[in-house]
Amino acid sequence: MSDFITVLRCAATLRLAKLITQDAIVPYDNTKTYDAWTFPISDIEALRAILARLISAPRCCVVRGELIDGPVVKRIVRRVYPDADTGEVPTLRDVPRRWLALDMEGIDRPDAVVAADIEACARIAISRLPNAFHGAGCVAQATAGHGIKTGIRLRLWFWLSRHTTGMELKQWLKGHPADPAIFGAAQPIFTAAPVFAQGMTDHISERLVMLPGAEIVEVPPPEALAPPPRPAPKPLPETNSLAASKYAMAALRNAASRVINAPVASRHPTCRSQTMSLARLVDAGLLARSDVEAVMISALEQAGKPRREGERLVAWALDHASSTPLPEGVA
Q: Which tens digit of pLDDT belongs to each residue from 265-281?
């Protein structure tokens, strides 16, 4: 079974590689639109060949998502959900992939292992993953901070035994030092080597290394990676009762807490689902719409989202109440 990889490219004046100066690591440019292409890949070697081209392409990155209007699209915004304000349609859809990229950080590097030895650093990082990855071949890539910041900072690329969803990956790799944000369909996966300021040279001579090993990482069956079932929603108490008021306020506080504490890649969907559930309480007269708007927009701001984006998202979610019916007898 083969797969595809989606490559995005920003405008010629922008940069999707970090800039290394004498004093700082300068972040990627803020890019709104991209040209996009889909490329077929069949195994770990084909994946390595794509990455070998992209490492010297500072305008390019990769996403897990599939192009809706592909295989070649010009000037698109990375969007998996409709824009609540403008109604603009999604450009990417979430699909299972056989290729896997893992951002590995927060791993101690022994003094005896130099940062430039990417293979040795990668084997240490792989040892922190589930047993299925041990002995597997992979493409190891040094990120911009590797060798500058403390610890091992690599991006590891693998080929899996089956197409695997982002949700399955989050379940499988929970508790391991792999950033789950990278499993989002629209999350940029940066592939270029950093750009160095004039007069500076790269302290790592070879940033992309192929580690020998098994060509395929065996993925557990879908049933083993299914998330635990959500508990059934608690029935709402009678409207206008003291219990109803306490229940509604607790629901609002809990929803805001879940948004504030959500991982970066989950902030948007968490706020959307939580607000849609609160909309049931608004429709039942247990909460004021203005109170929900104020609390949830503030929670999303605290989680790091711009206020205007939060206003649009919360307004849309309140107009699309959860389909879970209210208990019998509740107005």
A: 778 889 999 999 899 88
Count of Cβ atoms closer than 10 Å to residue 48 Cβ: 18
| Contact by Cβ (8 Å): 187, 265 | yes
Give the whole-angstrom CA distance, residue 69 versus residue 90: 10
Which residue's structure tokens are 């690591």? 25
DSSP state of 323: S
Could you give the angle at which helices 242-260 and 289-302 cross, rounded to 10 degrees? Answer: 20
Contact partners, residue 115, CB within 8 Å, separation at least 6: 109, 121, 142, 146, 147, 203, 204
147-172 burial, b if ≥16 CB within 10 A, otherwise e?
A: beeebbbbbbbbbbeeebbbebbbbb
How many whole angstroms separate alpha carbon 59 and alpha carbon 241? 59
Q: Which residues of 209-225 are buried (b: 16+ CB within 10 A; e: fewer)?
A: bbbebbebbebeeeeeb
As given in the structure block, the two tokens for residue 131 are 């047993």
Strand partners, 93: 66
Largest CA distance in the chain: 74
More confident call, 1 vs 142? 142
At residue 282, φ and ψ (nearest 5 deg) are: -65, -45
Radius of gyration of the chain (CA): 23
Interatomic CA distance for residues 35 and 11, integer angstroms? 8
Global model pTM greater than 0.90: no
CA nearest to 168, candidates 215, 120, 130, 216: 130
Pairing of strands 195-196, 19-20: parallel
**Cα distance between residue 6 and residue 156, in whole Å:** 17
- Segment 226-250 mean pLDDT: 68
> What residues contact residue 236 under an 8 Å CB cut-off, 6+ apart?
244, 247, 280, 281, 284, 286, 326, 327, 330
